[in-house]
Amino acid sequence: MPSPIRNSVSEIARLLWSGNPNSRESGYRIVLLFLCLSVAWPVSTTNAQWPGFRGGLLRDATSSEEVGLLQNWPDGGPPLVWKQDRLGDAAGTLAVVDGVIYTAGSIERRAYLHAWRLSDGEQSWRTEIAGANTVTPTPMVDSGKIYIQLKGRVHCHDAEDGKPLWSAEVMKLVDGDKTWKDRTHYGSWHGSPIVADGKVFVVTGHPEGPVIALDQNSGKKLWQCKGQREAVNRGWSSPIFVRRGSTKLVIAQTAWHVLGIDADDGTVYWEQQILGPGKNYDVGNALCNIPVYVDGRLFCATGYGPVVWTTFDLAADGTSLKKVWNNPAIHPFQESIVCIDGMLVGTGDVTWEDFDANPDLLVNGKPLRDWPDQKQPPPPDRRHDERKKRTFHFYDREAGGRERTGLVCQDLKTGKVLGVRYGFPRIGFSGLMMAVADGRIYGAWSDICDEVWLIEPTPSMQVRGSFQIPEPDERPADQPLIAIAHGRYSAPVVADGKLLLRVRDQLFAYDIRAPKK
Predict the structure, then answer these.
(1) What are the beta bridge partners of residue 212?
(2) Pairwise CA distance, residues 145 & 168, whole Å
(3) pLDDT band at 332, cuts 50/70/90?
(4) Is 154 helix (H, G, I), strand (E, B) or coil?
């Protein structure tokens, strides 16, 4: 509602409220007051707000609005409410705002942006995005507009009808040369820009501007920051937006470094290397992970060996940081880490040193002494990777022997491993992509595994239910899928009591609300 109308209604409400509160007319005044307030401040019919990649500006994959959800799933999982296809092939996930799902996909080698109703899965509109044929980033919705980056061009569309509003060629804006190519191993653009404070922030990795800011309404370049030479290689990472004290920060990872940038003018407050020495900076790294920020603590990682998992404390004003701890038990890959109740949870493994540091460390909910088959290996050969030699390998005869992949729980303050749960499949490069809502973790793999888990976020990490995603429908021969390196599945989204799962060109909506008592 325009502010003049809202102000007028507020004045009427003030007049209605004035007078003797003990008079008989006061009851009528109260009724009229609530009617005025309901006009001035309409209540949304849904609390579903998941505006972009991994949710909001912190991109922590956490929904703080979802309550009253199932804490345990029945056999076979929650009921399927609806499903849709024709989304097109993509590894990007979903944005959900005001009861509308926004996503993108490639159909017959053309990229399209879609809007679907959350309530019943019906499509509202579809529009083509010019100049792209594959889709991996996720759109972001802000102030009635949709923003997505494909192949180095940022596009802005109207959220109401999908109409294109503007587009900007990133590299041409940085230095006028649109032929510059990124230096990742795979030579692709997969990061999702973030929109905040009237700006669109994009990680470019360009030597003259590793991160740039565009005007949200016009696409005009507002600033570009400077970084060290080693920071210019662009990975697949997406930036986050953090308010620390009075400072508004864009925190972005390139292939080798993490930068803290003033959102107003592009000043680089700090820059830290997050990958070990001995790497070829001219090649770059396909870095999928994003910075994780929780209560003044910043976690930055790479998932390619050697794993580097560096933890920093961010100063009260956000302009400096210092290292705190490093324990790479979690091997983050494709945004596969969440933080809940002071614990970090992500795919990884533990070493025997982790047991030495915490004798109470739980393996599948039980202390190590309750697993008599587990034997410590001999000391590591110093000529090889010590962590790999000292990695704990779990054997459970009842589960058919060694379970290769674990879900690790670490303490947020110290990095101490609190627990690990084995029993998840090990598939290629994939990790358990997660979302958090109402005290539960929702996990699905990014590769060919078709199972989804509900996990209780404690050191035991008890599985509270799972189900199989239906196989994709048969597809006509003239509608081939484009192979995507990320695999079949996109990160799960929880919105308005529904668990949303995208399997390439299909979208499934499950009802995860607890029955009303």
Answers:
(1) 202, 224
(2) 15
(3) confident
(4) strand
Does 43 or 70 have the greater pLDDT score?
A: 70
Cα gap 17→162, rounded to integer Å: 44
Closest by CA position to 181, among listed 205, 153, 210, 213:
205
Q: 46 pLDDT exceeds 50?
A: no
Tokens of 486: 């990320």
DSSP code of residue 227: -
Distances (CA, A) of 309 to 292, 303, 306, 386: 11, 9, 10, 16
Between the alpha carbon of residue 397 and those of residues 44, 350, 353, 400, 421, the distances in Å are 52, 20, 24, 5, 15
Question: Residue 99 corresponds to which amino acid?
Answer: G
Task: State the angle between helix axes of 25-40 and 3-17 in degrees (0 to 180), rounded to the nearest 10.
Answer: 170
Compute CA distances 344 → 327, 427, 461, whole Å.
12, 22, 12
Peptide bond before residue 378 is cis, with ω within 30 degrees of 0: no
Q: Are 60 and 54 in contact (CB under 8 A)?
A: yes
Q: Are 228 and 257 in contact (CB under 8 A)?
A: yes
The SS3 call for residue 166 is: strand
In angstroms, the CA 504 to CA 90 distance is 5
Residue closest to 200 by CA, chosen among 210, 192, 189, 188 = 192
Contact assessment for residue 137 and residue 146, using Cβ atoms and an 8 Å cutoff: no
Tens digits of per-residue pLDDT, 201-245?
998 877 778 899 999 999 999 999 987 765 556 667 899 999 999
Instruction: Report DSSP state, residue 6.
Output: H
Mean pLDDT for all residues in the chain: 80
Phi, psi of 169 (to 5 degrees): -85, 110
CA 395: distance to chain centroid?
32
Q: Is the pLDDT of residue 23 over 60?
A: no
Please check whether residue 121 is in contact with residue 114, taking contact to mean a CB–CB distance below 8 angstroms.
no
Query: Which amino acid is it at 126?
Result: R
CB 115 within 8 A of CB 100: yes
Q: How far is CA 59 from CA 63, 214, 269, 316, in A?
A: 10, 20, 21, 21
- How many residues in total does the chain contain? 517
Whole-number pLDDT of residue 8: 39
Contact 423, 399 (CB under 8 A): yes
Give the model confidence (pLDDT) of 140-153 as tens digits: 999 999 999 988 89
> Which pLDDT score, from 0 to 100, does residue 232 have?
59
Q: Tens digit of pLDDT for each residue in 411-446? A: 999 999 999 998 877 655 567 889 999 999 999 876
**Least confident segment among 41-45, 56-60, 146-150, 178-182:** 41-45
CA distances to 16, 32, 40 from 7, in Å: 14, 16, 8
Q: With a cut of 90, say whether residue 449 has pLDDT above it.
A: no
Q: Name 140's Cβ contacts closer than 8 Å, sequence gap at least 6.
A: 51, 52, 53, 95, 146, 147, 148, 192, 193, 194, 195
